[in-house]
Amino acid sequence: MIDGHMHLEYGDLSKEYVLQFVESAVKNGMDEIQILDHTHRFKEFRPVYEGVRKASPYQEEWLNNKEMKFHSTLDEYCALIKEIKAMDLPIKVSFGLEVCYVPEYEETIREILKPYHFDFLVGAIHSIDGKLYDMKWSEEILWNKYPVDEIYKRYYECVFSLVKSDLFTQLAHPDTIKMFGHYPTYDLQPTYDELAELLNEHHMKAENNVGCYYRYHTPDIGLSDQLLQTFKKHHVQMITASDAHHPEDVGRNIADVWEKNNEVKIIFTFLIYFLS
Q: H or E stretch including 230?
Protein backbone atom coordinates (compact mmCIF):
# COMPACT_ATOMS: atom_id res chain seq x y z
CA MET A 1 0.00 0.00 0.00
CA ILE A 2 1.69 3.16 -1.27
CA ASP A 3 0.71 6.79 -0.90
CA GLY A 4 2.75 8.42 -3.63
CA HIS A 5 1.98 12.11 -3.19
CA MET A 6 1.74 14.24 -0.03
CA HIS A 7 2.81 17.79 0.81
CA LEU A 8 4.67 19.50 3.64
CA GLU A 9 3.21 22.77 2.33
CA TYR A 10 1.36 23.83 5.49
CA GLY A 11 4.17 23.11 7.92
CA ASP A 12 7.84 23.63 8.58
CA LEU A 13 10.64 21.74 6.92
CA SER A 14 11.28 19.93 10.16
CA LYS A 15 11.84 16.36 11.31
CA GLU A 16 8.94 16.69 13.74
CA TYR A 17 6.49 17.62 10.98
CA VAL A 18 7.66 14.83 8.66
CA LEU A 19 7.20 12.30 11.45
CA GLN A 20 3.55 13.32 11.75
CA PHE A 21 3.08 12.12 8.16
CA VAL A 22 4.96 8.90 8.89
CA GLU A 23 2.87 8.24 12.00
CA SER A 24 -0.37 8.82 10.08
CA ALA A 25 0.82 6.55 7.26
CA VAL A 26 1.55 3.71 9.69
CA LYS A 27 -1.80 4.21 11.40
CA ASN A 28 -3.61 4.04 8.05
CA GLY A 29 -1.85 0.89 6.84
CA MET A 30 0.63 2.33 4.35
CA ASP A 31 3.80 0.40 3.56
CA GLU A 32 5.45 3.26 1.70
CA ILE A 33 5.00 7.02 1.29
CA GLN A 34 6.42 9.63 -1.04
CA ILE A 35 6.78 13.12 0.43
CA LEU A 36 7.13 16.18 -1.76
CA ASP A 37 6.29 19.84 -1.97
CA HIS A 38 5.17 22.29 -4.63
CA THR A 39 7.99 24.16 -6.31
CA HIS A 40 6.34 27.48 -5.42
CA ARG A 41 7.65 26.89 -1.89
CA PHE A 42 11.25 27.26 -3.04
CA LYS A 43 13.08 30.46 -3.86
CA GLU A 44 14.97 28.85 -6.73
CA PHE A 45 11.76 28.35 -8.70
CA ARG A 46 10.50 31.94 -8.53
CA PRO A 47 11.38 32.66 -12.21
CA VAL A 48 9.20 29.76 -13.39
CA TYR A 49 6.08 31.52 -12.06
CA GLU A 50 6.56 34.87 -13.77
CA GLY A 51 4.05 34.01 -16.49
CA VAL A 52 1.49 33.04 -13.84
CA ARG A 53 2.20 36.24 -11.91
CA LYS A 54 1.63 38.45 -14.94
CA ALA A 55 -1.50 36.66 -16.16
CA SER A 56 -3.85 37.96 -13.44
CA PRO A 57 -3.87 40.27 -10.39
CA TYR A 58 -5.45 37.39 -8.44
CA GLN A 59 -2.44 35.24 -9.17
CA GLU A 60 0.04 37.99 -8.38
CA GLU A 61 -1.59 38.39 -4.96
CA TRP A 62 -1.51 34.61 -4.46
CA LEU A 63 2.20 34.44 -5.26
CA ASN A 64 2.97 37.38 -2.97
CA ASN A 65 1.88 35.39 0.09
CA LYS A 66 5.31 35.23 1.72
CA GLU A 67 4.21 32.66 4.32
CA MET A 68 3.41 30.15 1.60
CA LYS A 69 5.48 31.07 -1.47
CA PHE A 70 9.24 31.14 -2.10
CA HIS A 71 10.23 31.11 1.57
CA SER A 72 12.43 27.97 1.64
CA THR A 73 15.45 26.79 -0.34
CA LEU A 74 16.15 23.47 -1.97
CA ASP A 75 19.29 23.13 0.15
CA GLU A 76 17.17 23.39 3.32
CA TYR A 77 14.86 20.70 1.95
CA CYS A 78 17.80 18.44 1.06
CA ALA A 79 19.23 18.85 4.57
CA LEU A 80 15.89 17.68 6.00
CA ILE A 81 15.84 14.71 3.63
CA LYS A 82 19.32 13.68 4.76
CA GLU A 83 18.25 13.92 8.41
CA ILE A 84 15.15 11.77 7.89
CA LYS A 85 16.97 9.16 5.83
CA ALA A 86 19.44 8.66 8.67
CA MET A 87 16.57 7.53 10.91
CA ASP A 88 15.22 4.03 11.39
CA LEU A 89 11.61 4.42 10.26
CA PRO A 90 8.82 1.80 10.33
CA ILE A 91 7.97 2.29 6.62
CA LYS A 92 9.79 3.30 3.47
CA VAL A 93 9.86 7.08 2.98
CA SER A 94 10.99 8.71 -0.27
CA PHE A 95 11.35 12.39 -1.10
CA GLY A 96 10.80 14.44 -4.22
CA LEU A 97 9.20 17.55 -5.68
CA GLU A 98 5.97 18.37 -7.45
CA VAL A 99 7.27 20.57 -10.24
CA CYS A 100 4.83 23.00 -11.81
CA TYR A 101 5.74 22.40 -15.45
CA VAL A 102 5.43 25.32 -17.85
CA PRO A 103 6.56 24.50 -21.40
CA GLU A 104 8.26 27.83 -22.08
CA TYR A 105 10.29 27.47 -18.85
CA GLU A 106 11.40 23.88 -19.46
CA GLU A 107 15.10 24.71 -19.75
CA THR A 108 14.94 26.92 -16.66
CA ILE A 109 13.42 24.03 -14.72
CA ARG A 110 16.08 21.69 -16.06
CA GLU A 111 18.88 24.00 -14.90
CA ILE A 112 17.34 24.45 -11.43
CA LEU A 113 17.04 20.69 -10.93
CA LYS A 114 20.46 19.78 -12.35
CA PRO A 115 22.49 19.98 -9.08
CA TYR A 116 19.99 17.93 -7.08
CA HIS A 117 19.10 14.27 -6.85
CA PHE A 118 15.66 13.33 -5.56
CA ASP A 119 14.10 9.88 -5.21
CA PHE A 120 11.37 10.90 -7.64
CA LEU A 121 10.12 13.98 -9.51
CA VAL A 122 6.45 14.59 -10.14
CA GLY A 123 5.50 16.78 -13.08
CA ALA A 124 2.21 18.66 -12.89
CA ILE A 125 0.24 21.02 -15.12
CA HIS A 126 -1.53 23.66 -13.05
CA SER A 127 -1.90 26.48 -15.56
CA ILE A 128 -3.09 27.00 -19.12
CA ASP A 129 -0.86 29.63 -20.73
CA GLY A 130 -0.32 31.28 -17.37
CA LYS A 131 -3.89 30.99 -16.06
CA LEU A 132 -4.38 28.59 -13.15
CA TYR A 133 -7.35 26.29 -13.79
CA ASP A 134 -7.85 24.99 -10.23
CA MET A 135 -8.29 28.09 -8.05
CA LYS A 136 -11.31 29.97 -6.73
CA TRP A 137 -10.80 32.69 -9.35
CA SER A 138 -10.25 30.26 -12.25
CA GLU A 139 -13.87 30.46 -13.45
CA GLU A 140 -13.48 34.22 -13.94
CA ILE A 141 -10.09 34.28 -15.64
CA LEU A 142 -10.23 31.03 -17.61
CA TRP A 143 -13.36 28.89 -17.72
CA ASN A 144 -15.81 31.74 -18.41
CA LYS A 145 -13.53 33.34 -21.02
CA TYR A 146 -12.44 30.46 -23.26
CA PRO A 147 -14.19 27.46 -24.87
CA VAL A 148 -13.87 24.33 -22.74
CA ASP A 149 -12.71 22.30 -25.74
CA GLU A 150 -9.81 24.71 -26.30
CA ILE A 151 -8.82 24.56 -22.63
CA TYR A 152 -8.78 20.76 -22.67
CA LYS A 153 -6.77 20.59 -25.89
CA ARG A 154 -4.20 23.03 -24.56
CA TYR A 155 -4.05 21.22 -21.22
CA TYR A 156 -3.18 17.90 -22.84
CA GLU A 157 -0.71 19.57 -25.20
CA CYS A 158 1.10 20.76 -22.07
CA VAL A 159 0.85 17.31 -20.47
CA PHE A 160 2.39 15.75 -23.58
CA SER A 161 5.25 18.28 -23.47
CA LEU A 162 5.78 17.48 -19.80
CA VAL A 163 6.13 13.76 -20.50
CA LYS A 164 8.38 14.31 -23.51
CA SER A 165 10.73 16.52 -21.47
CA ASP A 166 12.13 13.43 -19.68
CA LEU A 167 12.47 15.52 -16.52
CA PHE A 168 10.06 13.49 -14.43
CA THR A 169 9.42 10.00 -13.11
CA GLN A 170 5.73 10.53 -12.31
CA LEU A 171 2.75 12.41 -13.77
CA ALA A 172 0.59 14.17 -11.18
CA HIS A 173 -3.22 13.84 -11.32
CA PRO A 174 -3.50 13.36 -15.13
CA ASP A 175 -7.16 14.42 -15.46
CA THR A 176 -7.55 16.93 -12.65
CA ILE A 177 -8.62 19.47 -15.29
CA LYS A 178 -12.13 18.02 -14.67
CA MET A 179 -12.22 19.21 -11.06
CA PHE A 180 -14.84 21.97 -11.51
CA GLY A 181 -17.11 19.79 -13.63
CA HIS A 182 -16.17 21.18 -17.05
CA TYR A 183 -15.94 18.52 -19.77
CA PRO A 184 -15.21 18.80 -23.50
CA THR A 185 -17.68 18.01 -26.25
CA TYR A 186 -15.18 15.86 -28.17
CA ASP A 187 -14.12 12.27 -27.47
CA LEU A 188 -11.04 12.15 -25.24
CA GLN A 189 -10.18 8.54 -26.12
CA PRO A 190 -7.55 9.35 -28.78
CA THR A 191 -5.94 11.81 -26.34
CA TYR A 192 -5.91 9.22 -23.58
CA ASP A 193 -4.39 6.58 -25.88
CA GLU A 194 -1.64 8.98 -26.94
CA LEU A 195 -0.93 9.90 -23.32
CA ALA A 196 -0.67 6.23 -22.32
CA GLU A 197 1.74 5.50 -25.15
CA LEU A 198 3.90 8.51 -24.25
CA LEU A 199 4.04 7.51 -20.58
CA ASN A 200 5.28 4.06 -21.53
CA GLU A 201 7.77 5.44 -24.04
CA HIS A 202 9.25 7.80 -21.44
CA HIS A 203 9.09 5.31 -18.54
CA MET A 204 6.81 7.43 -16.35
CA LYS A 205 4.23 6.43 -13.77
CA ALA A 206 0.75 7.96 -13.73
CA GLU A 207 -0.93 8.86 -10.48
CA ASN A 208 -4.35 7.65 -9.49
CA ASN A 209 -4.77 10.69 -7.29
CA VAL A 210 -7.80 11.08 -5.00
CA GLY A 211 -7.14 14.68 -3.92
CA CYS A 212 -9.94 16.18 -6.02
CA TYR A 213 -12.40 13.65 -4.62
CA TYR A 214 -12.17 14.53 -0.94
CA ARG A 215 -10.96 18.13 -1.30
CA TYR A 216 -13.22 19.32 -4.14
CA HIS A 217 -15.91 16.60 -4.19
CA THR A 218 -15.49 15.44 -7.77
CA PRO A 219 -17.63 12.39 -8.64
CA ASP A 220 -14.60 10.23 -9.57
CA ILE A 221 -12.62 8.88 -6.62
CA GLY A 222 -9.45 9.16 -8.68
CA LEU A 223 -8.97 8.81 -12.41
CA SER A 224 -12.09 8.69 -14.55
CA ASP A 225 -13.09 5.15 -15.49
CA GLN A 226 -12.27 5.88 -19.12
CA LEU A 227 -8.73 7.07 -18.40
CA LEU A 228 -8.12 4.29 -15.85
CA GLN A 229 -9.20 1.62 -18.32
CA THR A 230 -7.03 3.21 -21.01
CA PHE A 231 -3.99 3.08 -18.75
CA LYS A 232 -4.76 -0.54 -17.92
CA LYS A 233 -5.16 -1.42 -21.60
CA HIS A 234 -1.73 0.04 -22.36
CA HIS A 235 -0.14 -1.41 -19.18
CA VAL A 236 0.86 2.02 -17.88
CA GLN A 237 2.57 1.93 -14.49
CA MET A 238 0.31 3.59 -11.90
CA ILE A 239 0.80 4.76 -8.34
CA THR A 240 -1.89 5.55 -5.78
CA ALA A 241 -1.78 9.03 -4.26
CA SER A 242 -3.77 10.91 -1.62
CA ASP A 243 -2.39 14.39 -2.40
CA ALA A 244 -2.53 14.94 1.37
CA HIS A 245 -1.78 18.49 2.48
CA HIS A 246 -2.19 17.58 6.16
CA PRO A 247 -0.91 14.52 8.06
CA GLU A 248 -4.41 13.27 8.84
CA ASP A 249 -5.15 12.84 5.12
CA VAL A 250 -2.26 10.45 4.45
CA GLY A 251 -3.64 7.22 2.98
CA ARG A 252 -7.12 8.64 2.48
CA ASN A 253 -9.07 6.56 -0.09
CA ILE A 254 -5.90 4.72 -1.09
CA ALA A 255 -7.57 1.34 -0.50
CA ASP A 256 -10.42 2.38 -2.81
CA VAL A 257 -8.22 3.34 -5.75
CA TRP A 258 -5.83 0.43 -5.13
CA GLU A 259 -8.78 -1.90 -5.56
CA LYS A 260 -9.81 -0.16 -8.80
CA ASN A 261 -6.23 -0.25 -10.11
CA ASN A 262 -5.95 -3.96 -9.41
CA GLU A 263 -9.47 -5.29 -9.98
CA VAL A 264 -8.46 -7.01 -13.23
CA LYS A 265 -5.54 -8.76 -11.48
CA ILE A 266 -7.78 -9.73 -8.58
CA ILE A 267 -10.41 -11.25 -10.89
CA PHE A 268 -7.73 -13.06 -12.93
CA THR A 269 -6.11 -14.48 -9.78
CA PHE A 270 -9.50 -15.62 -8.52
CA LEU A 271 -10.27 -17.36 -11.81
CA ILE A 272 -6.93 -19.18 -11.81
CA TYR A 273 -7.54 -20.32 -8.22
CA PHE A 274 -11.12 -21.36 -8.98
CA LEU A 275 -10.27 -23.24 -12.17
CA SER A 276 -7.36 -25.06 -10.59
A: helix 225-233
